[in-house]
TrEMBL record:
It comes from the Bacteria. This is Cell division ATP-binding protein FtsE. It comes from Azospirillum oryzae. Its main location: membrane. Residues 224-241 have a biased composition (Basic and acidic residues). Residues 219-241 are annotated as: Disordered. Pfam families: ABC_tran. Belongs to the ABC transporter superfamily.
Length: 241
Protein backbone atom coordinates (compact mmCIF):
# COMPACT_ATOMS: atom_id res chain seq x y z
CA UNK A 1 0.00 0.00 0.00
CA UNK A 2 2.47 2.68 1.21
CA UNK A 3 6.23 2.35 1.41
CA UNK A 4 8.79 5.02 2.26
CA UNK A 5 12.49 4.23 1.85
CA UNK A 6 15.09 6.68 3.20
CA UNK A 7 12.84 9.62 2.40
CA UNK A 8 13.91 13.19 3.09
CA UNK A 9 11.96 16.41 2.61
CA UNK A 10 13.17 19.98 2.64
CA UNK A 11 11.51 23.25 1.69
CA UNK A 12 13.79 25.38 -0.48
CA UNK A 13 17.26 25.71 1.01
CA UNK A 14 16.14 25.07 4.60
CA UNK A 15 17.24 22.07 6.64
CA UNK A 16 15.31 18.85 6.06
CA UNK A 17 12.03 18.70 7.96
CA UNK A 18 11.89 14.91 7.44
CA UNK A 19 15.02 12.78 7.50
CA UNK A 20 15.65 9.16 6.56
CA UNK A 21 11.99 8.14 6.85
CA UNK A 22 11.43 4.42 6.21
CA UNK A 23 8.25 2.43 6.90
CA UNK A 24 5.63 0.26 5.22
CA UNK A 25 1.87 0.45 5.79
CA UNK A 26 -0.03 -2.66 4.77
CA UNK A 27 -3.43 -2.36 3.06
CA UNK A 28 -6.24 -2.14 5.59
CA UNK A 29 -4.04 -0.99 8.50
CA UNK A 30 -4.72 1.78 11.04
CA UNK A 31 -1.96 4.00 12.44
CA UNK A 32 -1.92 7.08 14.60
CA UNK A 33 0.67 9.70 13.64
CA UNK A 34 2.09 11.45 16.70
CA UNK A 35 4.79 13.93 17.62
CA UNK A 36 5.24 17.41 19.01
CA UNK A 37 4.09 20.46 17.07
CA UNK A 38 6.60 21.10 14.30
CA UNK A 39 7.81 17.49 14.24
CA UNK A 40 6.75 17.08 10.59
CA UNK A 41 3.36 15.33 10.85
CA UNK A 42 1.60 17.55 8.31
CA UNK A 43 4.55 17.29 5.93
CA UNK A 44 4.48 13.49 6.13
CA UNK A 45 0.74 13.42 5.42
CA UNK A 46 1.24 15.70 2.41
CA UNK A 47 3.86 13.33 1.04
CA UNK A 48 1.35 10.49 1.37
CA UNK A 49 -1.28 12.60 -0.39
CA UNK A 50 1.16 13.45 -3.20
CA UNK A 51 0.93 17.18 -2.44
CA UNK A 52 4.73 17.20 -2.15
CA UNK A 53 7.44 15.13 -3.75
CA UNK A 54 10.32 13.99 -1.54
CA UNK A 55 13.70 15.68 -1.81
CA UNK A 56 15.24 12.23 -1.79
CA UNK A 57 14.31 8.60 -1.26
CA UNK A 58 11.52 6.39 -2.60
CA UNK A 59 7.77 6.73 -2.02
CA UNK A 60 5.53 3.92 -3.28
CA UNK A 61 1.74 4.29 -3.18
CA UNK A 62 -0.74 1.67 -4.39
CA UNK A 63 2.22 -0.20 -5.86
CA UNK A 64 3.44 2.75 -7.94
CA UNK A 65 6.73 4.59 -7.62
CA UNK A 66 5.74 8.22 -7.13
CA UNK A 67 8.85 9.42 -8.95
CA UNK A 68 7.38 7.88 -12.10
CA UNK A 69 3.90 9.40 -11.71
CA UNK A 70 3.13 12.30 -14.05
CA UNK A 71 0.94 15.32 -13.25
CA UNK A 72 -1.71 13.83 -15.53
CA UNK A 73 -1.85 10.71 -13.32
CA UNK A 74 -2.21 12.59 -10.02
CA UNK A 75 -5.99 13.27 -10.09
CA UNK A 76 -6.78 9.58 -10.57
CA UNK A 77 -4.56 8.61 -7.64
CA UNK A 78 -5.87 11.36 -5.38
CA UNK A 79 -9.46 10.28 -5.98
CA UNK A 80 -8.57 7.10 -4.08
CA UNK A 81 -7.43 9.11 -1.05
CA UNK A 82 -9.65 10.82 1.52
CA UNK A 83 -7.94 13.77 3.22
CA UNK A 84 -8.74 16.09 6.10
CA UNK A 85 -6.22 18.89 6.52
CA UNK A 86 -6.47 21.68 9.06
CA UNK A 87 -7.60 24.30 6.51
CA UNK A 88 -10.69 22.12 5.68
CA UNK A 89 -10.65 23.30 1.99
CA UNK A 90 -14.44 23.72 1.76
CA UNK A 91 -16.00 25.62 -1.15
CA UNK A 92 -17.76 28.66 0.32
CA UNK A 93 -20.46 28.91 -2.36
CA UNK A 94 -21.63 25.32 -1.77
CA UNK A 95 -23.79 23.99 1.05
CA UNK A 96 -22.51 21.41 3.52
CA UNK A 97 -24.29 18.68 1.58
CA UNK A 98 -22.92 19.85 -1.78
CA UNK A 99 -19.37 20.02 -0.38
CA UNK A 100 -19.67 16.44 0.84
CA UNK A 101 -21.21 15.37 -2.47
CA UNK A 102 -18.26 16.46 -4.62
CA UNK A 103 -16.41 13.09 -4.72
CA UNK A 104 -19.61 11.18 -5.51
CA UNK A 105 -20.69 13.54 -8.26
CA UNK A 106 -17.23 13.44 -9.82
CA UNK A 107 -17.54 9.63 -9.84
CA UNK A 108 -20.93 9.81 -11.61
CA UNK A 109 -23.04 8.48 -8.73
CA UNK A 110 -26.82 8.82 -9.36
CA UNK A 111 -28.12 12.02 -7.77
CA UNK A 112 -30.71 10.29 -5.58
CA UNK A 113 -27.95 8.14 -4.08
CA UNK A 114 -25.72 11.20 -3.64
CA UNK A 115 -28.33 13.04 -1.59
CA UNK A 116 -29.19 9.97 0.49
CA UNK A 117 -25.58 9.06 1.30
CA UNK A 118 -24.48 12.62 2.03
CA UNK A 119 -27.48 13.29 4.26
CA UNK A 120 -26.78 10.10 6.20
CA UNK A 121 -23.09 10.84 6.81
CA UNK A 122 -23.82 14.44 7.83
CA UNK A 123 -26.38 13.19 10.34
CA UNK A 124 -23.78 10.74 11.65
CA UNK A 125 -21.31 13.55 12.36
CA UNK A 126 -24.01 15.61 14.08
CA UNK A 127 -24.87 18.01 11.26
CA UNK A 128 -28.31 16.72 10.28
CA UNK A 129 -29.79 20.18 10.87
CA UNK A 130 -27.14 21.92 8.74
CA UNK A 131 -27.39 20.08 5.42
CA UNK A 132 -27.98 23.27 3.43
CA UNK A 133 -25.81 25.63 5.49
CA UNK A 134 -22.94 27.46 3.77
CA UNK A 135 -19.48 27.16 5.37
CA UNK A 136 -19.50 30.86 6.33
CA UNK A 137 -22.37 30.17 8.74
CA UNK A 138 -20.68 27.19 10.43
CA UNK A 139 -18.30 27.11 13.38
CA UNK A 140 -14.76 25.78 13.04
CA UNK A 141 -15.75 22.44 14.53
CA UNK A 142 -18.74 22.15 12.20
CA UNK A 143 -16.59 22.92 9.16
CA UNK A 144 -14.18 20.25 10.30
CA UNK A 145 -16.98 17.69 10.44
CA UNK A 146 -18.12 18.62 6.92
CA UNK A 147 -14.55 18.08 5.71
CA UNK A 148 -14.41 14.70 7.47
CA UNK A 149 -17.73 13.64 5.96
CA UNK A 150 -16.45 14.58 2.49
CA UNK A 151 -13.23 12.62 3.05
CA UNK A 152 -15.01 9.35 3.83
CA UNK A 153 -18.12 9.56 1.62
CA UNK A 154 -16.66 7.47 -1.22
CA UNK A 155 -14.97 4.81 0.97
CA UNK A 156 -11.40 5.74 -0.05
CA UNK A 157 -8.60 3.20 -0.21
CA UNK A 158 -6.52 5.52 1.98
CA UNK A 159 -7.73 8.02 4.59
CA UNK A 160 -5.39 10.74 5.92
CA UNK A 161 -6.58 13.09 8.66
CA UNK A 162 -4.60 15.88 10.35
CA UNK A 163 -5.94 16.51 13.88
CA UNK A 164 -9.53 15.60 12.93
CA UNK A 165 -10.77 15.95 16.53
CA UNK A 166 -8.93 19.17 17.32
CA UNK A 167 -11.97 21.49 17.14
CA UNK A 168 -14.71 19.26 18.55
CA UNK A 169 -15.75 18.14 22.02
CA UNK A 170 -14.84 14.72 23.41
CA UNK A 171 -18.19 13.15 22.52
CA UNK A 172 -18.02 14.17 18.86
CA UNK A 173 -14.33 13.25 18.76
CA UNK A 174 -15.15 9.73 19.93
CA UNK A 175 -17.94 9.47 17.35
CA UNK A 176 -15.55 10.50 14.57
CA UNK A 177 -12.99 7.90 15.65
CA UNK A 178 -15.67 5.22 15.56
CA UNK A 179 -16.42 6.33 12.00
CA UNK A 180 -12.74 5.94 11.04
CA UNK A 181 -12.70 2.57 12.82
CA UNK A 182 -15.63 1.36 10.71
CA UNK A 183 -13.84 2.38 7.51
CA UNK A 184 -10.75 0.52 8.72
CA UNK A 185 -12.83 -2.61 9.30
CA UNK A 186 -14.12 -2.29 5.72
CA UNK A 187 -10.55 -2.30 4.39
CA UNK A 188 -9.54 1.37 4.23
CA UNK A 189 -5.97 2.16 5.26
CA UNK A 190 -6.19 4.89 7.92
CA UNK A 191 -3.57 7.37 9.18
CA UNK A 192 -4.72 9.85 11.83
CA UNK A 193 -2.43 12.62 13.13
CA UNK A 194 -3.41 13.52 16.68
CA UNK A 195 -2.21 14.81 20.05
CA UNK A 196 -5.18 13.21 21.84
CA UNK A 197 -3.65 10.51 24.04
CA UNK A 198 -7.07 9.49 25.41
CA UNK A 199 -8.24 8.52 21.92
CA UNK A 200 -4.96 6.74 21.20
CA UNK A 201 -5.39 4.67 24.36
CA UNK A 202 -9.05 3.96 23.61
CA UNK A 203 -8.37 2.77 20.06
CA UNK A 204 -5.35 0.53 20.42
CA UNK A 205 -3.52 0.91 17.10
CA UNK A 206 0.19 1.24 16.33
CA UNK A 207 1.60 4.70 15.94
CA UNK A 208 4.08 6.42 13.66
CA UNK A 209 5.93 8.76 16.01
CA UNK A 210 7.94 11.70 14.65
CA UNK A 211 10.66 13.33 16.70
CA UNK A 212 12.73 16.12 15.16
CA UNK A 213 12.06 14.89 11.63
CA UNK A 214 12.82 11.23 12.31
CA UNK A 215 10.26 8.45 12.56
CA UNK A 216 9.81 5.51 14.90
CA UNK A 217 7.08 2.87 14.55
CA UNK A 218 5.54 2.05 17.95
CA UNK A 219 3.47 -1.18 18.12
CA UNK A 220 0.03 -1.18 19.71
CA UNK A 221 -0.23 -2.19 23.36
CA UNK A 222 -2.12 -5.31 22.34
CA UNK A 223 0.59 -6.47 19.95
CA UNK A 224 3.27 -5.83 22.58
CA UNK A 225 1.28 -7.86 25.11
CA UNK A 226 0.81 -10.68 22.60
CA UNK A 227 4.52 -10.66 21.82
CA UNK A 228 5.29 -10.83 25.54
CA UNK A 229 2.98 -13.84 25.93
CA UNK A 230 4.56 -15.48 22.88
CA UNK A 231 8.03 -14.98 24.35
CA UNK A 232 6.86 -16.52 27.63
CA UNK A 233 5.42 -19.48 25.74
CA UNK A 234 8.65 -19.96 23.79
CA UNK A 235 10.60 -19.82 27.04
CA UNK A 236 8.32 -22.44 28.62
CA UNK A 237 8.65 -24.67 25.55
CA UNK A 238 12.41 -24.36 25.73
CA UNK A 239 12.42 -25.67 29.30
CA UNK A 240 10.81 -28.91 28.13
CA UNK A 241 13.13 -29.54 25.20
Amino acid sequence: MIRFENVGLRYGTEAEVLRDISFTLQPGSFHFLTGASGAGKSSLLKLMYLAHRPSRGLVTLFGRDMAMVTRRDLPELRRQIGVVFQDFALLDHLSALDNVALPLRMAGTPEADVVAHCSEILRWVGLGNHLHAKPSTLSGGQKQRVAIARSVINRPRLLLADEPTGNVDDGIGMRLLYLFEELYKLGTTVVIATHNEALIRRFDHPRLHLDNGRLMVVPSRGSRANEGRAQDARANDARWE
